[in-house]
Write a structure and sequence with these properties.
Strand content of chain B: under 5%
Catalytic activity (chain B): oxaloacetate + 2 Na(+)(in) + H(+) = pyruvate + 2 Na(+)(out) + CO2
Number of domains of chain B: 2
Order of helices and strands of chain B: HHH
Strand content of chain A: under 5%
Largest sheet of chain A: none
Number of strands of chain B: 0
Distance between the termini of chain B: 69 Å
Largest interface: A-B, 47 and 34 residues
Structural class of chain B: mainly alpha
Oligomer: heterodimer
Function (chain B): Catalyzes the decarboxylation of oxaloacetate coupled to Na(+) translocation.
Shape of chain B: rod-shaped
Organism (chain B): Vreelandella titanicae
Shape of chain A: elongated
Helix content of chain B: over 70%
Distance between the termini of chain A: 57 Å
Order of helices and strands of chain A: HHHHHHHHHHHHHHHHHHHHHHHHHH
Cofactor (chain B): Na(+)
Number of helices of chain A: 26
Helix content of chain A: over 70%
Number of helices of chain B: 3
GO biological process, one term (chain B): sodium ion export across plasma membrane
């Protein structure tokens, strides 16, 4: 009978907490959105599955050896760890209370060497870091995965339309207003006492408006790792929603006549220009904004591999095999941050809300900037391509094209919209660099 | 009081961030335009495509190709020097 009780107490059903159950449902919801609604399935399938794995009770896939030991180890081990952490446990309280207090102690204000000592004890009695925890540490904690993805994006990007019409870079710059307006919005909500975000967290939330998955993950892993799960989910979910979010804003801000504006044919761009561009961008980054160097450096590297034409094998790997491998690991790592304690908070709703506002403001700023440029320049610019200034390559450009075709079925804006689109990638990486410099 | 400070910080970061993004991309626009002009001057776009296509098979090295290369480079040289005047 005792054995049966032990088995029951070791089962998932016995240990399932309400939060974990809810998070497993959230993971299933993400899988549903990915599989049936085709919301960025490449990312949301791994993220959703990772989220389910991370919330399996007792398995501790997403937590470190120390946390794992605190949660399930025998009282004797707990006492040992408390001694290593320099804390005393109330001998009258039961083991559950000990676990709670150890959890608090281990994460707040203890010297790193004490934490390490406690960890050594946990490892010594046979606990180890969870699989997803290791993934996270290697892929995101070190910053590698988002950067490799960025390299792959660079290898997939054709700067031709941008080089043919460099002024579209301004549209990519204007659309970054969404990032900073949202940052300010998050700070304003905090000062009104509705939410509670630090400036770092506000910056990480704002970057959702950059509509760039790897950039959002990179920035939040540096500035606010505790919000990473919610931010990554919001960023990818809204990127999938670009075709729904953008068109109403674009229609609201433009007249039918403006939407029909035809743009002049883009000039052909020579190969030499395409080779020089990533190098030039890299030098400018090195001169003016070294903090954007990890992101833009990898981006330029990927693009140079694509354009130089002598390392086709590397370029092919960067845009196919490598980016796929890294996407799997990145998705699972993000999923590991979908744990009940950090995700099921009122702040998550705030992040989701602010994220969509960031998208909207970015789109509007891009469109308005295009209208402004139309006033001052001779070459006509269709304001719709301004909306492509939020990155989300190539979805945003396709949306601009589609809305343009609704007004004039013979007006193809896709290539024109690719210019601001890739400019948006550069713009959001620059914005990320500024925020990391200012706050990091 | 502390809230006001946070708000100010947010505002400062917003202004600074937008400013830097715009300045950086303006510099980029200027340099791209300059670069395109320079490239266009030394290697006009249609010619660039042609030489790119021809020179890659010719690097497959044979005596004939060397002669062709010499003729092309002489022509390019004359073209450039005539253009500078």
């Amino acid at each position: 009978m005792d054995k049966l009780v032990t088995l029951w107490e070791g089962s998932g059903l016995y240990n399932l907490e309400l939060g974990q159950a809810v998070m497993i449902m959230v993971g299933l919801l993400l899988l549903y959105l990915a599989i049936y609604k085709k919301f960025e399935p490449l990312l949301l399938v791994p993220i959703g599955f990772g989220g389910i794995l991370a919330n399996i009770p007792e398995a501790g896939l997403a937590i470190s050896a120390l946390d794992q030991a605190i949660e399930v180890a025998k009282p004797a081990v707990l006492q040992q760890m408390a001694a290593a952490l320099g804390a005393t446990l109330d001998p009258l309280a039961n083991a559950e209370a000990w676990r709670e207090s150890l959890k608090v102690i281990a994460h707040d204000g203890v010297a790193p060497d004490q934490v390490r000592a406690a960890r050594d004890i946990a490892v010594g009695v046979g606990y180890s870091d969870g699989m997803l925890y290791n993934f996270y540490k290697v892929a995101i904690g070190s910053g590698i995965a988002p950067l490799i993805i960025f390299m792959g994006v660079g290898a997939m990007t054709d700067f031709g339309p941008l080089l043919a019409n460099p002024r579209t870079l301004f549209l990519g710059a204007a659309a970054q207003f969404g990032i900073f307006a949202t940052l300010f919005g998050a700070v304003a909500l905090t000062s009104m006492g509705i939410m509670d975000f630090s400036l770092n967290q506000a910056a990480a939330i704002g970057i959702i408006g950059g509509a760039d998955g790897p950039t959002s993950i990179y920035v939040s892993s540096v500035l606010a790792p505790e919000l990473l799960g919610a931010i990554a989910v919001a960023a990818y979910a809204y990127m999938a929603l670009v075709p729904l979010i953008q068109p109403p804003i674009m229609r609201l801000l433009t007249t039918d006549k403006e939407r029909q504006i035809k743009m002049t044919q883009l000039r052909p761009v020579s190969k030499l220009e395409k080779i020089i561009f990533p190098l030039m961008l890299l030098i400018l980054v090195a001169l003016f904004l070294p903090d954007a160097a990890p992101l833009l450096g990898m981006f330029c590297f990927g693009n140079l591999m694509r354009e130089c034409g002598v390392v086709e094998r590397l370029s092919d790997t960067a845009q196919n095999a490598l980016i796929n491998i890294v996407t799997i690991i990145l998705g699972l790592s993000v999923g590991s941050k979908l744990m009940a304690e950090s995700f099921l908070a009122f702040e998550t709703l705030g992040i989701l809300g602010l994220g969509i506002v960031a998208f909207g403001i970015g789109t509007a700023a891009g469109v308005l900037m295009a209208k402004l440029m139309n006033l001052v320049s001779k070459m006509p610019i269709n304001p719709l391509i301004g909306a492509a200034g939020v990155s989300a390559v190539p979805m945003a450009a396709r949306v601009a094209n589609k809305v343009g075709l609704e007004s004039n079925p013979h007006n193809f804006l896709l290539m024109h919209a690719m210019g601001p689109n890739v400019a948006g990638v550069i713009g959001s990486a620059v914005a990320a660099g500024v925020m990391i410099k200012y706050l990091g | 009081m502390q809230d006001l400070e946070l708000l100010q910080e947010g505002l400062a970061l917003m202004a600074l961030g937008m400013g830097v993004v715009f300045v950086f991309l303006t510099v980029l626009v200027i340099s791209v335009t300059l670069m395109s002009k320079l490239v266009g001057r030394f290697q006009p776009a249609p010619v660039a495509v042609n030489t790119g296509n021809k020179s890659s098979p010719s690097s497959g090295s044979s005596a004939q190709n060397d002669e062709v290369m010499a003729v092309i480079s002489a022509a390019v040289h004359r073209y450039r020097s005539s253009r500078r005047r």
